[in-house]
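S.,

As promised, the magnesium ion run. Input:
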Amino acid sequence: MSFADLSLHPAILANIAAAGYSSPTPIQRQAIPTICKGRDILGIAKTGSGKTASFVLPILQQLIGHSQQEKNRQPKALILVPTRELAMQVSEVAKSLSNQLPRHMSSMAVYGGVSINPQMKALYGVEILIATPGRLLDLQRSNAVDLSKVQILVLDEADKLLNLGFKEEMEEVISLLPDSRQNLLFSATLTDQLESLNRVLLSDPQVIKIAEEGEDTEQLINLSGYFVSDDRKGPLLRHLIKELKMKQVLVFVSSGAKADRIANKLYKNGIEAQAIHGKKSQGARTRALQDFKSGAVQVLVATDLISRGIDINALPFVVNYELPRSPRDFVHRVGRTGRAGDTGLAITFVTRDETHHFKVILKKMKRYMDMVDSTQLEF
Ligand code: ADP
Ligand code: MG
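Predicted complex:
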């Protein structure tokens, strides 16, 4: 099947070709026609499988036919995401796919951590709005945006947005939307919470479940694990960076302070490393991610802040320096590699007293892992 079989406008097809996509991924094949029919959907497909275009393309296709009346210059599609970095990324995808359409369709990302005034000014006439919930509400309270004309609502990383942490903000945002609208929920992981909440949110949804992470037979993400004590983790990481000739590796830790410490230690050992976490300024966050994506920074030490949705082209290595608390976070962390058909290696450090917790994670992922005892290695 090709994109041309999905009844998309020729100008959209041209943008798809320019993006270098030759054929639709399974989730795109199923979600695009269903969304174009106006149905609500719950789309579950693994990390890196092209979910962004699965909602951006049918949004463009549906809006392209509407003429944007002067009097009604308010967002028609609202895409909610859990982090600022993801907002920027989704907005880049939306912009690249909405180039040179028969009529100009403007999209924009709004998110916190940067001054609000430029966003207020730039919002006029934006049809596709990508937002983190908090900043969206700030803008709405300042009357900079009117959400009453939203026809399509997307929750990207839906299970995260429907988590307790976002509950109040999400309820408020939803109360500002028209009752009659199309709802599209996307995620790589599905929780019970999501299953119950989507009953409230979605009307007669089509559930499109390609395969949750770990369920498919073809595994693009290779997993390997090391038993290692806390005090040997630093030397082991440096050893692996050298042994496996890692030019680009994303290292996950549990706190911002840890991320800073580990990045500093690597730097002192002559390895180009940066930290990214929620305690950094937005400028520093954006720069660290950009420099890592461009290859200027070899090691990015991160908290779960960027475990969701972030797409780093052909990232070969992820290291779990510390185990995440939930199996779901593990799935999203390792899913930063092995994207868009590429393969990747995710390495996990496990201390002896975490053995049980680690087994729980692997069981949830339906994966098995051979463990290396690092005391047997020389480094
Ligand atoms: P997900 O949201 O499912 O984790 P993304 O939407 O971030 O995945 O897409 C992952 C990568 O796949 C991106 O780099 C994107 O450009 C690429 N991609 C998306 N659709 C296609 C396609 N049809 N063919 C090739 N690459 C694609
Ligand atoms: Mg995504």
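The first strand starts at residue 41 and ends at 45. The pocket of magnesium ion (ligand 2) is lined by residues 51-52, 156, 309 (CB under 6 Å).

- D.
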